[in-house]
Amino acid sequence: MRAVLDTQIEFLKVVGPQRAALLQKELGLFTYRDLLQHYPFRYEDKSTFYTIRQLNEGMPNVQVKGYLRLFEMVGEGSKKRLVGHFKDETGEMELVWFKGIQWVLKKYQPGIEYIAFGKPNRFGTKVSMAHPELDVNSSKSKPNALEPVYPLTEKLKAKYIDSKTILSWQREALIQCYPSFEDFLPQDIRAQFGLIERKEAFRHIHFPQSAEWLQKAKFRLKFEELFLIQLKLLTQKLIRLEKFKGFVCSDTQLLHTFYNEHLPFELTNAQKRVIKEAYTDMKSGKQMNRLIQGDVGSGKTMVAFICILLAIGNGSQAALMAPTEILADQHLKGLLPLAEALGISIALLTGSTKTKERRKIHEGLVSGELKLIIGTHALLEDTVQFKQLGLAVIDEQHRFGVAQRAQLWKKNEQIPPHILVMTATPIPRTLAMTIYGDLEISVIDELPAGRKPIQTVHRYESSRLKVFQFLREEIEKGRQVYIVYPLIEESEKMDLKDLMDGYESISRAFPSVPLSIVHGKMKAEDKEFEMRRFVKGETKIMVATTVIEVGINVPNASIMLIENAERFGLSQLHQLRGRVGRGAEQSYCILMSSYKLSKDSRVRIETMVSTNDGFQVANTDMQLRGPGDLMGTQQSGIIDLRMADLVQDGKILEIARQAAQHVLDEDPHLTEARYLPLQNILKAMRGNQINWSRVS
Ligand code: ADP
Ligand code: MG
């Protein structure tokens, strides 16, 4: 069967070499399989007929049975057009063509009964349809009730290749492949999950016998797409677990000392649960690969520190990597007293660490004397070697790539370190299961007690005086304020000017209040200096761009004012908001915007105002942007799906993952005869990505 599906499209007689070349170039279709997997993106419902009198402006595409009376050329120059007078028992309408006139004249004859299909326009009593499809109304050519519409390109259309043409090719390809079409999903799995056979799915996706069959076909094809990805991810995980030992961290003495004597607060239940989950991994003898998702302020750092203690308490070292120097520094500051109380040696390694200090750190890590290293990307350098790295924590994982995660693995030759990645950008579960499908996932879904929910409001420019007055009052009460301006690559200069203008007007509005300013164009040390002043409380207002987005912790800051909020993405807004609400005081997030808002900006702002829940924010974000954009180009390839949609098909994904798990539980290496076809497909898949052309 491989042979038939693998046949080049040019051998499909109805297509021929010339058009095959075009299909290749325009749509990337090479084989029968490619063609069959060129799925319709929607279907025209042709189950109902309308009469001309019923037609109205604003209707979707509809079909009408009638006689083509005559053709007529009307208009001059660019207004020149072909009009076909089309009549049924209720009236008459004009079919209009501006292009392809010769072709239309050749193809359709007046005096014949046709079914016209198109979008009706009504002008007074006059009804027309531009560029309708016409079908001869004979019982033989009775159209499908649901007619597929295929993705096409302008070049193809120019060659008169339309959805009907593609459909006729699909018919031929299907006829040839159908008899030998195999199914890689065994019968019992199909039965268990209510899946139709693969060949039936292909048949009904192109030629749906009914809406119900179409549904079944879609379900099957979505399922298999998601299933294969999950099978791949779970297999990777299995292989990793089999292959990689993990440092056994079963001694909890150090952890208990800390817990009983030094823990500065009671852990939340969610923190406790996640620590237990990590502990189970870390003592298992297998390598841990765990993602901790927790909303901003949910206390991920403490969870990480306790895992670090577990690693160190069992004789190994630990590393904590953050995306920025400021953040790494803050981690150091926060953890230093705790580490000192426990007699744990700790150091900071960043790009700006002086050579002498750096050398000392390198030595300490190699000798094993230095137990905990906190740093930035600098930790990834090859010169950084460990005696025994037991655990690597990556904070704000979304700022790093998958490759960097892998780099940390290599820090230990024998046993790779346990890996804990943390992210405060909650992503919808469906997406997490795909992007991080090879990781275990823990969720901290609870904020420390006593936090007052942040109040978020939306204000227009006209309320600026009031807003500033409010800031003044809060500052008088001793609080600190962030004022954030957008800074987007393309318009950097403009934005910088906005920021500086903003800074000017803020210094005028708050003449006696000490201000800090931080933006991406400043030298690192100047940035540091300004940040520090704010952290220490010397300055009361921090005017900044989104450089402060990640991680910064100033519990005394209680107001986040975001200028031009309409220009920020939803997850960015949420991250920024997470900078406040960290202390005991009531905190506020004020979103300033202009009056003119696009529909999406409005939804973003409304979402921010209505919820503090990061997961809800993430779901809306995914609906607005689609999963690809959400993860950035770097990772979007993974979720380049043909049929399934991570926004809509979360349920199917859950089932598909279950099914994949079920298969692997039964036969981890897919060596049973019935799973061999699956094994072959997995081999053909590269990375997380499926090379669909090889999927049979
Ligand atoms: P994030 O998850 O955003 O990284 P952090 O780890 O920075 O959050 O924690 C935010 C703040 O909450 C810190 O000041 C931290 O000390 C504090 N914190 C963490 N866990 C708790 C807790 N269980 N009870 C009270 N405060 C906590
Ligand atoms: Mg953090």
UniProtKB/TrEMBL annotation:
A GO term, aspect molecular function: DNA helicase activity
EC class (word): isomerase
Domain of life from the UniProt record: Bacteria
Gene3D superfamilies: Nucleic acid-binding proteins (2.40.50.140), P-loop containing nucleotide triphosphate hydrolases (3.40.50.300)
Catalytic activity as recorded in UniProt: ATP + H2O = ADP + phosphate + H(+); Couples ATP hydrolysis with the unwinding of duplex DNA by translocating in the 3'-5' direction
Known EC number: 5.6.2.4
Domain Helicase C-terminal: 466-628
Record keyword Aminoacyl-tRNA synthetase present: no
Residues annotated as domain Helicase ATP-binding: 281-444
Keyword list, A-Z: ATP-binding, DNA damage, DNA recombination, DNA repair, DNA-binding, Helicase, Hydrolase, Isomerase, Nucleotide-binding
Keyword ATP-binding tagged: yes
Pfam families: DEAD (PF00270), Helicase_C (PF00271), RecG_dom3_C (PF19833), RecG_wedge (PF17191)
NCBIfam families per record: PRK10917.1-3, PRK10917.2-2, recG
Function: Plays a critical role in recombination and DNA repair. Helps process Holliday junction intermediates to mature products by catalyzing branch migration. Has replication fork regression activity, unwinds stalled or blocked replication forks to make a HJ that can be resolved. Has a DNA unwinding activity characteristic of a DNA helicase with 3'-5' polarity.
Family: Belongs to the helicase family. RecG subfamily.
Name of the molecule in the record: ATP-dependent DNA helicase RecG
Origin species: Shiella aurantiaca
This protein's encoding gene: recG
